[in-house]
Amino acid sequence: SLVSIIAIDGPSASGKGTVAQRVAERLGFHYLDSGALYRLAALAAGRRGVDWDDETGVASVAAALDAVFAGERVWLDGDEVSTAIRSEAIGVGASRVAALPAVRAALLARQRAFAQMPGLVADGRDMGSVVFPHAGLKIFLTASAAVRAERRYRQLIARGEPADLAAITAELEARDARDRDRAVAPLQQQPDALLLDSSGMDIDSAVAQVLDWWQARS
Ligand code: C5P
């Protein structure tokens, strides 16, 4: 198709959200934070008293999500939930509902609808494998577990939230294991994805690398 797509997948706290957003800004492309949709599905299910393990129930909540995005802000049923969807509890809920095939299916068309001219940078776990398999550039962005836990820890402290490095490390590892080991759309580097390990790298260098790769492709 004519719409250019850059798919960035990777584990939590790898920096893919920030990198994807900055690449989108630099290129004038749209941006999809697919994790936000799973977070919204978990939050909406919770608010409706639907259990996170109830596949049919969460799938119908996901199919009917009343969500509005504007930059980094997001609204659910007319309420701003930009902060609420970023909590660790909702992150855990997101990774539980994301393991249910009917929930993933319910969110597929909504994700593909973000592919608009002139282009899209999409970040998540299965952007290159399932949602945009024909993406012009696929990147697997990762960092060591220690570096990712440290980044998440600093984010929480900066937001004035309580943070415990050991607990964060354990939660990150549990969430990654759930994302990697699930049967449907598991987190894994695709054979046609370029590996970007940001462990010893700052955001600007990671953004520059993605832009270099994109230029080399187009
Ligand atoms: O990226 P983020 O941490 O916001 O994603 C929250 C959870 O949503 C992930 O742990 C993962 O289980 C799920 N997810 C997914 N597929 C995506 C994006 C997120 O399964 N494309």
TrEMBL record:
<keyword id="KW-0808">Transferase</keyword>
<comment type="similarity">
    <text>Belongs to the cytidylate kinase family. Type 1 subfamily.</text>
</comment>
<dbReference type="Pfam" id="PF02224">
    <property type="entry name" value="Cytidylate_kin"/>
</dbReference>
<keyword id="KW-0547">Nucleotide-binding</keyword>
<keyword id="KW-0418">Kinase</keyword>
<protein>
    <recommendedName>
        <fullName>Cytidylate kinase</fullName>
        <ecNumber>2.7.4.25</ecNumber>
    </recommendedName>
</protein>
<feature type="domain" description="Cytidylate kinase">
    <location>
        <begin position="6"/>
        <end position="212"/>
    </location>
</feature>
<dbReference type="InterPro" id="IPR011994">
    <property type="entry name" value="Cytidylate_kinase_dom"/>
</dbReference>
<feature type="binding site">
    <location>
        <begin position="10"/>
        <end position="18"/>
    </location>
    <ligand>
        <name>ATP</name>
    </ligand>
</feature>
<dbReference type="InterPro" id="IPR027417">
    <property type="entry name" value="P-loop_NTPase"/>
</dbReference>
<dbReference type="GO" id="GO:0016301">
    <property type="term" value="F:kinase activity"/>
</dbReference>
<keyword id="KW-0963">Cytoplasm</keyword>
<dbReference type="InterPro" id="IPR003136">
    <property type="entry name" value="Cytidylate_kin"/>
</dbReference>
<keyword id="KW-0067">ATP-binding</keyword>
